[in-house]
Design goal:
- This protein has about 270 residues and is of the alpha+beta class.
- It has nine helices and ten strands.
- The protein has two domains: about 5-85, Phosphorylase Kinase, domain 1 (2-Layer Sandwich), CATH 3.30.200; about 90-265, Aminoglycoside 3'-phosphotransferase, Chain: A, domain 2 (Alpha-Beta Complex).
- Helix 2 packs antiparallel against helix 4 (about 115-125).
Length: about 270
């Protein structure tokens, strides 16, 4: 009897064969999975099987060619599957960030968040609006009662601007090799949204020292409430990861969230 994983593997192999005709299901290795997709590797290719927005392949090309982001290049796209070039490196989750990463990400985020003119128009034509106010992050949020009380007590006002953002810029989506950032993955949640959202997950995963170094070089839009929103979103994201790790048995997410609680919450 075919398992769901076998079915995904067959779909992945069929998509890879559009790029490399000799690919078989047995030649694919599972790289990982998220809430809405599973990623397989075949040699120097990665195939994501599952849900992704129709605009994501075009966004990846725009990021790579116009802004120099180390985003994976789409090689083939069909319904429910996207074949991409494999990027070198390992996910940063649970690891120490390399020297120079804060400066490099500051430059990339500045270019993305401060895009204007024709480039901004291209982003606006692709990306959905995410106009959720900070208070909406509390919907369905769970966790220890004392931490939830802190989050609910300190809800900041909404951002005055919306810009192109990755919208899920956690360490699990950053690939590094040595001291080099080699990839930024999973742009399915990208949107026109609050720029503080991108900084918030870096605060959760990499800590206040890293974010201080980044913000010293960042030249994107910063308003008086920016830091308050970064902290609020980071606290919400830490509780989300705590719940996700507990529900899925992914200890790396639990451990990362517990570590983040130490610098995100008082006491």
């Amino acid at each position: 009897m075919e398992s769901p994983q076998d079915g995904l593997r067959e779909r992945a192999a069929a998509a890879v064969r559009r790029v490399e005709p000799g690919a078989t299901a047995r030649s694919l290795d599972v790289l990982g999975s998220g809430l809405d997709h599973t990623a397989f590797r075949h040699g120097d290719l990665v195939v994501r099987v599952g849900a992704f927005p129709a605009w994501e392949p075009a966004l990846l090309v725009l990021l790579r060619e116009r802004l120099g982001w180390p985003a994976p290049v789409p090689r083939h796209v069909e319904d429910g599957a996207m074949v991409l070039d494999l990027l070198p490196g390992e996910p940063l989750l649970g690891r120490r960030p390399p020297a120079g990463l804060a400066a490099g990400l500051a430059a990339l985020l500045t270019d993305l968040h401060a895009a204007d003119g024709g480039l901004l128009e291209e982003f606006e034509a692709l990306l959905p609006d995410d106009d959720a106010e900070p208070g909406e992050w509390l919907d369905g949020l769970d966790g220890p009662a004392d931490l939830l009380a802190v989050v609910r007590r300190d809800v900041p006002p909404a951002a005055p601007v919306r810009v192109p953002v990755h919208n899920d810029l956690g360490a699990e989506h950053l690939l590094v090799e040595g001291d080099r950032l080699t990839g930024v993955l999973d742009w399915s949640d990208a949107a026109l949204a609050d720029p503080a959202v991108d900084v918030s997950r870096l605060l959760r995963d990499l800590g206040p020292g890293f974010v201080a170094g980044l913000m010293a070089r960042y030249r994107g839009p910063v308003d008086p409430g920016f830091d308050d929103r970064v902290l609020f979103y980071a606290r919400c994201a830490a509780l989300e990861d705590l719940a996700f790790g507990a529900e899925t048995g992914r200890r790396e997410y639990v451990e990362n969230a517990v570590r983040a609680v130490g610098w995100l919450f008082p006491g």
